[in-house]
Amino acid sequence: MNGSPKMLNDFLKYYATVLRYMDDFISEPISRYHMTFDAFLILHEIGTSTKPILLMDIAANHHVSRSAISRQISTLLKYDYVYQVANPADRRQKSLLLTEKGQATDKQLMHDIQLVFNQWIDKLGTDRIHAMLAFFDDFTHQIVDPHQS
């Protein structure tokens, strides 16, 4: 056994407090716009894409099914954050673009989240935030998706 019972108990304690805290502070402003965090990530990805982006591109980027992404996109369509443009050569392919409302929402949410993130940087320092992000990157590549490197 590699980890001690104390290490596991510490992990469980921090998981229950730190990650819930992070989730609450990120999710709270997003929920005001009738979105989940996943829907916001999709909205932001569409908004920052330099080329037309398709539903299947987003599904591949997020490592989930097209139907899972489709459910999130239906919410974004319902609240007029995104719209679709059919490919003239293949009408089944539809590019996703942000509406003006979607652009404004993405900009506002990024601002709100940046304010919270800046507080973390002010309290913990840039070096510790970089170390945390490096840990998350390692965890993602070694544990969550080791075959994706």
UniProtKB/TrEMBL annotation:
Q: Which InterPro entries match?
A: HTH_MarR-typ (IPR000835), MarR/SlyA-like (IPR039422), Tscrpt_reg_MarR-type_CS (IPR023187), WH-like_DNA-bd_sf (IPR036388), WH_DNA-bd_sf (IPR036390)
- Domain HTH marR-type: where? 8-141
Task: Note whether Transcription occurs among the keywords.
Answer: yes
What keywords tag this UniProt record?
DNA-binding, Transcription, Transcription regulation
Cite a single Pfam family from the UniProt record.
Answer: HTH_27
Q: Does the keyword Iron apply?
A: no
| Protein known as | MarR family winged helix-turn-helix transcriptional regulator
Organism the protein comes from: Lactiplantibacillus daowaiensis
